[in-house]
From TrEMBL:
CDD domains: HTH_XRE, S24_LexA-like. The lineage of its organism: Bacteria, Pseudomonadati, Pseudomonadota, Betaproteobacteria, Burkholderiales. It comes from the Bacteria. It holds the Pfam family Peptidase_S24. PROSITE patterns: HTH_CROC1 (PS50943). The keyword Glycosyltransferase does not apply. The keyword Transcription regulation applies. Residues 47-91 form the HTH cro/C1-type domain. Keywords: DNA-binding, Transcription, Transcription regulation. This is Helix-turn-helix domain-containing protein.
Length: 275
């Protein structure tokens, strides 16, 4: 099922990286080679396999990042920064500019998952609404992929339909942080009958840890999809609900499959005019 957005930066199949992305990849590769040389001089493991273990993604994805086959995103850039001991700006000034936004999202996630103690509750409620209204406005957005924080950027839709009201009780009961919630429209019938075209779902961009059989918005090779994540052995797959054989599952791995956020709510459907 596809997320509605005004345009896709690169339709499938994904096009080659542009000259700026290639330059960033080349700079990253040079820094990686210097890191390997320094490690070897100290008698420490310096192979791509060893690096991939530290980076927590596959060696194949590492090789593709270094050789400009897939674009960097802020999450991956932070991991490389920690591995190489250099600031993100050393290989990507574009992603470095998004680091503060990403850190803010991480802080919000920590707040959302904090234990229930007095300070945590107060802090969370102030974040929601100082007046404690019964509903909280959540931005309704369109997603532009392969750029910005965690592999995507969100642009607000027309002002006449820019927010939806989410019950405050729902937010508090599920330990959610409003700043990390986005409402998106969906298209297609791959998730039928659970989701149909025109439905609105709310995603939590602070929750990107895959859980078996849960639903997520995913940047899959430069295309936005809402899918069920299924684990089979050591592999993760994107699965549809529609039983039509045309909707086969796809492997979700490396930089070609970036989780944007977990689906936490589906708004009520409007049945008028659907048949």
């Amino acid at each position: 099922m596809f997320i509605s957005f005004p345009y896709i930066v690169r339709p499938m199949p994904a096009l080659p990286l542009n000259q700026f992305e290639l330059a960033e990849a080349a700079q990253l590769k040079q820094l990686f080679i210097e890191w390997q040389q320094a490690r070897r001089s100290q008698g420490l493991p310096a192979s791509q396999e060893a690096a991939a273990n530290h980076l927590q993604f596959g060696q194949s994805a590492l090789n593709q990042y270094l050789n400009g086959k897939i674009p960097l995103n802020i999450d991956v850039a932070i991991k490389f920064s920690k591995l190489l001991g250099v600031p993100i700006s050393a290989f990507s000034s574009t992603l470095a500019s998004h680091a503060d936004d990403f850190a803010a999202a991480k802080d919000a996630m920590a707040m959302a998952t904090a234990r229930e103690h007095d300070f945590g509750i107060v802090g969370k409620r102030i974040t929601i609404d100082a007046q404690q209204a019964e509903h909280v406005p959540i931005k309704k957005v369109s997603l532009t992929l392969r750029a910005g924080v965690m592999g995507f950027e969100a642009s607000q839709e027309d002002a006449s339909e820019s927010t939806i009201d989410l019950p405050l009780r729902f937010i508090e009961e599920n330990d959610l942080v409003p700043q990390c919630l986005l409402a998106i429209s969906v298209k297609g019938d791959s998730m039928w009958p659970l989701m149909i075209e025109g439905d609105v779902v709310v995603i939590n961009i602070a929750d990107t840890k895959p859980i078996n059989n849960e639903f997520y918005a995913v940047n899959f090779d430069g295309e936005a999809v809402v899918k069920r994540l299924v684990r089979d052995g050591r592999e993760w797959y994107l699965a549809s609900m529609n039983p039509d054989p045309a909707y086969y599952r796809r492997a979700c791995r490396g930089g070609e499959c970036i989780i944007v956020g977990r689906v936490v709510r589906q708004e009520a459907r409007t049945l008028m005019g659907r048949v």
